[in-house]
Design brief:
Number of helices: 28
CATH class of the largest domain: Mainly Beta
Strand content: 15-25%
Oligomer: single chain
CATH superfamily of the largest domain: Hypothetical protein
CATH architecture of the largest domain: Roll
Strand order of the largest sheet: 13-14-15-16-17-18-20-19
CATH topology of the largest domain: Archaeosine Trna-guanine Transglycosylase, Chain: A, domain 4
Shape: elongated
Helix content: 25-40%
């Protein structure tokens, strides 16, 4: 059982003061000489912190002073009884001092003789070596150590502003020594100093480099020289006070992967991560080998120097790009390129939510630079009127991550937000990933509202996660598939187990069972439960209507594209004559785009997509038009034409959603010969069996 140690402050009346003096006197060889009156004086000021064991005996103390003019704390004594050394007592005493001083003072300093060989001890507590100075003992040197509380000041604010203009990357300590140490001639490292990189790239170190220098060089002049080099020629990163240390997680990872790395190196990497840089440059083969796993765990990319050079070179050459239509509308989508950061900052930085210019700029530069991991797209209208900004992170094979999703406040903000969410899910499924995760910490209210409206995301640690499998399986197969994912991917994916259990749930009422499976298909979209006995119809649709309702390919072949609001919606309505479907039915629709020679060969007379059939309503044209005018492409006269100009006749409104465009089209001939094994004419809704649906889905989605 771990011994309980109590940490308290004492005054001059404390019964522990005498024990403090005695422990200090017993260690005068390593502690500065202190008179009893000096102990009393510090006790009166409340500047002695003690560690008390379960027997109420003193096992250590920390005595400090306050340098008011320098706004800092100075440790004078840190002394632990022999019986309790190497048991974490010093760490507890120092932790208490940090806690009570971090708001008011800039940091904590101390002086320690070099020949006491305590460099590693001070480094472990978080101190950073600063400089050497002569000790009072002739021929001896003192080292001055500093623990920074990282308060904002004129210099740190200037450094933060610099982040608005360059991509900040952390280089490991070995690269720094390869830069400037005469014994090394590492060309990959040296290439990072090329002049052409300077406008775009800021090379950074963490302050752990000074501890490295302290150990690496025995000569005090060399220590001074390299300390000055680090400070003058490179940027020293400051940890984000909000970010918590990843030291133990890093240590565990390196031990599991049998990577031989010192605690100083782990501290160095930890400080880089907590300094909000997204790229860590190293030549360490062990770290490079686990780059993917490291990225998944810490959201920081590990890159070799030559790969960084290549990526920066690539983004410099990205001066031209070809925009593409968004979902077949006249809106356009293009890749973000270097030089657009200021423009994007004006429209998409979440300043009201506390996102700084520097923070936003570093994200964008990182997304542009790492083209092997990120795709960064701008959605705009007309002459570059920005509407949305979205980034796809494809690093994980099983998941598409969205680290940034921003929308500009316009009349169609909600529609665009809804579309971006659904498009992300669609892309993830199309790329055979099982999950979509939205991790942007600065989501707008419009985006969050649409995530909640979607109803298929689970929230976990301020991220939104949902499953999206492009598979068609039986209930048992899909249930087992989800169980395997839940077990292999950890607690964040526990919801897969819950969905798996729902799949196995048996409901006596057949209609309720269908509704359960119908809803589960929504949660797992585009996954299909092939033995769910959900009714499925092949429904014909004219190409002219399909281009507006779901067919991006047809819209792109149409001079005026599709109608923006409709093409971006997930829930839509299609009208036809009242025969073929019963009101109130739910299920699936397989869309057959009928022949139209106005469009290119191969784009019509084929099966192209699958939708969820949400509702069927039969009523008068005018009433249906009023009810669904925002979800349909039709004018009232179009609906009346369906009745052959008899406005009092009923027609059918088919409300559908979440359309999946198939990877492959299926021709009428293929449908007849390979799947249905009979000739049909697709002139109205045609019901198919679960087995036929499974064949269609499999053939249409084969890569």
């Amino acid at each position: 059982m771990k011994e309980q140690i109590k940490i308290i402050e004492i005054d001059e009346k404390s019964p522990h003061l005498q024990a403090v003096i005695e422990l200090g006197d017993a260690n005068t060889k390593t502690l500065s000489f202190f008179r009893r009156t000096a102990f009393n004086k510090h006790a009166e000021k409340g500047q002695i912190i003690v560690a008390i064991d379960y027997k109420k005996s003193l096992v250590g103390y920390l005595l400090y002073g306050v340098a008011t003019s320098y706004h800092r704390i100075t440790i004078i004594h840190l002394c632990i009884a022999d019986s309790h050394q190497s048991k974490g007592v010093a760490k507890k005493l120092f932790g208490y001092l940090v806690e009570i001083t971090q708001q008011k003072y800039s940091g904590i300093g101390l002086t320690c003789r070099r020949d006491f060989n305590l460099s590693n001890f001070w480094s472990k507590l978080g101190f950073v070596f600063q400089y050497d100075k002569p000790a009072k003992t002739p021929g001896k040197l003192n080292a001055y150590w500093w623990f920074d509380h990282y308060h904002s000041n004129l210099f740190s604010n200037a450094a933060t502003r610099q982040r608005e203009y360059k991509l900040y990357v952390a280089i490991d300590s070995q690269i720094f020594f390869d830069f400037y140490h005469s014994d090394n001639n590492n060309k990959d490292a040296q290439s990072l100093l090329a002049d052409w990189l300077d406008p775009d790239l800021q090379l950074c170190l963490t302050d752990e480099i000074f501890n490295k220098i302290n150990i690496f060089f025995d000569n005090k002049d060399e220590r001074k020289h390299f300390t000055n080099l680090a400070k003058k020629l490179l940027t020293i990163l400051s940890p984000n006070k909000i970010s918590s240390s990843k030291f133990q997680s890093l240590k565990n990872l390196f031990e599991q992967r049998k990577i031989n790395i010192s605690e100083s190196d782990i501290r160095y990497i930890d400080k880089a991560i907590t300094s909000d840089v997204y790229i860590f440059v190293t030549g360490n083969s062990g770290l490079l080998d686990i780059a993917d796993e490291f990225y998944e765990q810490f959201n920081v990319s590990i890159i070799h120097p030559r790969d960084l050079i290549i990526q920066v070179d690539e983004i410099r050459r990205q001066t031209e790009y070809q925009p593409v239509r968004l979902a077949g509308t006249l809106l356009q989508k293009s890749r973000v390129t270097l030089g657009q950061e200021k423009f994007l900052n004006e429209y998409f930085r979440a300043d009201k939510l506390g996102e700084t210019k520097a923070e936003f700029k570093q994200k964008i530069l990182r997304f542009i630079a790492e083209t092997d991991k990120f795709d960064c797209f701008l959605v705009f209208e007309g002459e570059k009127q920005p509407l949305a900004l979205v980034v796809y992170d494809r690093r994980k094979k099983y998941e598409l991550e969205i680290p940034l999703m921003r929308v500009v406040d316009t009349s169609i903000t909600a529609t665009i937000a809804n579309h971006l969410i659904f498009e992300s899910i669609s892309i993830s499924a199309r790329e055979e990933r099982s999950f979509t995760k939205i991790t942007d910490r600065f989501l707008s209210e419009a985006v969050i509202r649409n995530i909640h409206k979607d109803g298929t995301f689970v929230e976990f640690n301020h991220t939104y996660l949902r499953a999206n499998m492009a598979i068609a399986k039986t209930v048992n197969q899909l249930s087992q598939y989800l169980e395997n994912l839940a077990v292999s991917l950890g607690k964040e994916y526990k919801f897969c187990h819950q969905i798996s259990q729902l799949l196995q749930k048996k409901v006596e009422n057949e209609h309720e069972q269908k509704e359960l499976y119908f809803n589960l298909e929504k949660y797992l979209w585009p996954a299909k439960i092939i033995d769910a006995n959900l009714p499925t119809w092949i429904i014909p649709i004219k190409a002219f209507w399909a281009k507006d309702l779901f067919d991006e390919e047809l819209a792109n072949n149409w001079l005026f594209g599709s109608k923006t609001e409709l093409a971006l919606k997930r829930e839509l309505v299609f009208y036809r004559s009242k025969r073929g479907l019963k009101p109130g039915v739910i299920g699936r629709i397989i869309w057959y785009v009928s022949n139209d020679e106005s469009f290119p060969y191969g784009t019509t007379k084929v099966i192209k997509a699958c939708s969820r059939l949400d509702e069927v309503i039969v009523d008068k044209p005018e009433k249906l038009y009023r009810q669904f005018r925002n979800l349909g492409v039709y004018k009232l006269e179009d609906l009346i034409k369906i009745t052959k100009n008899k406005p009092n006749e009923d027609i059918m409104a088919i409300q559908f959603s979440d359309t999946q465009i198939f990877t492959n089209t299926i021709t009428l001939k293929e449908l007849q010969e390979d799947i249905l094994e009979k000739k049909i004419t697709v002139q109205g809704p045609f019901k198919i069996t679960p087995e036929q649906f499974a064949k269609i889905y499999d053939k249409a989605n084969k890569n």
